[in-house]
Amino acid sequence: MAHPIDIHVGRRLRQRRRLLGLTQEKLAQAVDIRFQQIQKYESGSNRVSASRLWSLSKALDVSISYFFEGMNGAEPKLDMDLRSEYGFSEAPAEGLLDEKETMDLVRYYYRLDEEPRRRLLDLARALSSES
């Protein structure tokens, strides 16, 4: 069984890779490994070594600490704990940030200029209060 910290690091790896629009194969090529290894890292089934974590951080243009953000002490934050942090009245769906669609939405949102981004956010707020 995978350790919770390995799962957290794998999730952060997947989130960043998807946010950048990289495939597992492209990331694997960048760090000179097979894409199956990236799959194993992302699922938490294989632990990422320190040297590999350094290579991945360079390829993804983040600090090594990025992979550990969101952890509370020795255990990672559970998705349920994010409820108050992000203003959810109920717990967000399990693995919400693991969804490709969510990461695509975030990536495209931040490609917009400030004014269309603000209008899109206002629209989302209005639509969510209607339901």
TrEMBL record:
Q: Which domain of life is it from?
A: Bacteria
Entry-linked PROSITE patterns: HTH_CROC1
- Parts of the chain that traverse the membrane: none
Entries under Pfam families matching the protein: HTH_3 (PF01381)
InterPro entries attached to this UniProt entry: Cro/C1-type_HTH (IPR001387), Lambda_DNA-bd_dom_sf (IPR010982), TransReg_Diox_bact_type (IPR050807)
Occurrences of domain HTH cro/C1-type (ranges): 13-67
Which terms are listed as keywords in the entry?
Answer: DNA-binding
Would you tell me the protein name for this molecule?
Helix-turn-helix transcriptional regulator
Biological classification of the source: Bacteria, Pseudomonadati, Pseudomonadota, Alphaproteobacteria, Parvularculales
